[in-house]
Amino acid sequence: MTDWADQTEQRLLDAALAFAGEMGWSQAMVDRAARRVGLSRGETELLLPQGARDLAALLSRRHDARALATLSKIDASKLKIRERIARGVEARLEAAIEDEAALRRWAGFLALPTHMPLALRLVWESADHIWRWAGDTATDENHYSKRAILSGILISTLAVRLSSGPEAAAAELSARIDNVMAFEKWKAGLHPALAASAAAAALGRLRYR
Length: 209
Description:
Blueprint: H1 2-23, H2 27-36, H3 41-47, H4 52-71, H5 81-97, H6 100-110, H7 116-133, H8 141-164, H9 166-180, H10 183-188, H11 192-208
């Protein structure tokens, strides 16, 4: 049952990506994708009880897995910490851009106020994957502040990539890392709740760019 569910979720996501650019991230898109893969309404509701929200989470986690596959080929121990984070963000961004047409509608969907808690949870997961790949072992408040700050960097860099292209995104990433990489400043500075607020503001840029 688990294998069937996992495999069918991925087939459903593949179908959804073909329609999302035109239809947006919506229940109508979910229904059309389900028909494409031959699922009944009951089967679709079993797999995606929250409809498009569940599909949005599946896409984010697919991009995380794709980025980690790229990062697994890099020996993080040979890089300085700022280089590790830059590589992590770049890998995550390139993983997402492979689905650019659907990604634009996905980003707008998650930037809606009603979906922002889900968006922040997903970007936190992405930031956590990158920090763990980078070798982070912090268990105190730094564990949370690092992920909160990186969440903001991930969102703002994606927003710039979608609105202004890869060169502007690279410049944004470099500038953001320059602003926050001093670890002592991180340790004494931005509280996780304030960083989450900054991440939410960056999500607004995705919606209103």
